Amino acid sequence: MRGRATTCAARGKRSCAMSDVSVWQRAYDAVERNVSPRVEAVVHSDEFTTVTAVFASTRQVAGSQVNAAAARLWHLLNLPAGSDVQRLRTQVGALDRQVRRLTMQLDRDTSNE
């Protein structure tokens, strides 16, 4: 560390970190200036939109096939699949809401008597 600070001071620079930042900033700016227009052109092209849509669709189909196969495997082992658990959670949530409504209604009815 001490040797580096001496070297930076000998070069007339305040600190190595400041000079490193400026060098990196200039390098980044140069790359960005050259690459950004090309990337923007690709991203805004019709081909990119088409490829992205096909990729998303393919990913969705593959994911659903994997989930279906996993569900069959869990069912073969007589275990609940993720879809079963999700369905049960939805039903428990609906029952919880119904119990709350009935409790509130019962509280209102008993307070009115």
Question: Can you walk through the features of this model?
Answer:
By secondary structure, the chain is an all-alpha fold. Helices cover 88% and strands 0% of the residues. The chain has 3 domains: 1-44; 53-79; 82-113. It has 4 helices and no strands. It is elongated, with a radius of gyration of 32 Å. The chain starts with a helix and ends with a helix.
Features:
88% helix; 3 domains; single chain; mainly alpha; 113 residues; 0% strand; elongated
Overall average pLDDT? 87
**Tally of structural domains:** 3
> How far from one another are the termini?
83 Å
Total strands: the figure is: 0
Overall SS class: mainly alpha
Radius of gyration: 32 Å
Question: Brief description of this entry?
Answer:
By secondary structure, the protein is mostly helical. The chain has helices spanning about 1-10, 15-45, 45-75, 80-110.
Write the layout of secondary structure elements.
Layout: H1 2-10, H2 16-43, H3 46-76, H4 82-112
